[in-house]
């Protein structure tokens, strides 16, 4: 008796089909407000499903991981390495964006007076308040006065801070803490199971989100800014392959192996333009890839605040693009100032909706670019956001592996076994 194997598309291909289907639907329903709203609502429901499972996974994995680590000295060392690594990579991303902008001059090919402007009032107020907050507000905001309030608002840094201390406290009480660890271990396993169920709806969510975006923008709106979009994507690809590839090689890691592990998550991140959409699976996969679960649970959520490499590339490139479009020549000194301002401001935007765009609003005035200029690229922000989200996801995944390797908390045998299982 013959056994026939039923061929099924994996999640990555299903998401790609959803992506293409969404583009087709967007073109068909261009300008149709009812269809656009329906697709937007379906897409929002998918993102809400993801957001529903993010915090339980982060909290449970972090408490169990930190409790198993059990050493506050080791935690301090891991935290220090993580922040230094994030700062170095973000700086390199900003510099790469500036280099590409100076070499290829994307703004020289644009007539700003022929571009269609978009309403950015929602971002302006956020940028104004962000200018007054500064770096100290981040440090002040890390310590939660009410952990339940932080959980209800999804404020990641105070949640991480509390979970770290809760995990250390659990480890400190020894045997009495076993029941707590068993509970949170069970919670994490349940939430990973729920994640797998939610991910089955990803192709529908992706189709709806892309369809709504194309239906609102239209394909024609991309034409005048296509060179800038293409240049941004090429720069991001160079960062992943070259800069991240070299960083991986320093720690004897093949970047292509890592990209193969997270390929489905990269497709999903691209389609949804949401890092949160893949956070649960990245935490799960990096653990299966051989990184100590405590390190993964600490590094990946922290990276969602401090390691936004794709956003850094976009911000520096977009700032130069706008300056060139307005005929503003920036000296080396002004560009160094821009890089420093971007590094500081981007850290102050953690958790802000449309963070990359808000950072641009808060910084372009420092180089003399009219704020009105941002109204011309607001329409393509979502499209570029898809690319920079992929870079952010890849960067956080690599960070977890590198910190794990630096702490000798990376299981090579488990890593090779997991890679082999993916190739079957």
Over all CA atoms, what is the radius of gyration?
22 Å
Structural class: mainly alpha
Tell me how many strands there are. 0
Q: What is the helix/strand order?
A: HHHHHHHHHHHHHHHHHHH
Number of helices: 19
**Mean of all residue-level pLDDT scores:** 83
- The low-confidence runs, each spanning 5 or more residues with pLDDT under 50, are 1-6
Molecular shape = globular
* Largest sheet geometry: none
- Taking the alpha carbons of the first and last residues, their distance comes to 24 Å
Question: Percent range for helical residues?
Answer: over 70%
Strand content: under 5%
Write the layout of secondary structure elements.
Blueprint: H1 11-28, H2 33-69, H3 72-104, H4 121-142, H5 147-153, H6 156-172, H7 178-199, H8 202-217, H9 226-250, H10 255-261, H11 263-272, H12 279-288, H13 293-306, H14 309-325, H15 332-347, H16 355-363, H17 374-377, H18 381-406, H19 412-422
Helix pairs in contact: 1-8, 1-11, 2-6, 2-7, 2-8, 2-13, 3-9, 3-13, 3-14, 3-15, 4-16, 6-13, 9-14, 9-18, 11-18, 12-13, 12-18, 13-18, 14-16, 14-18, 15-16
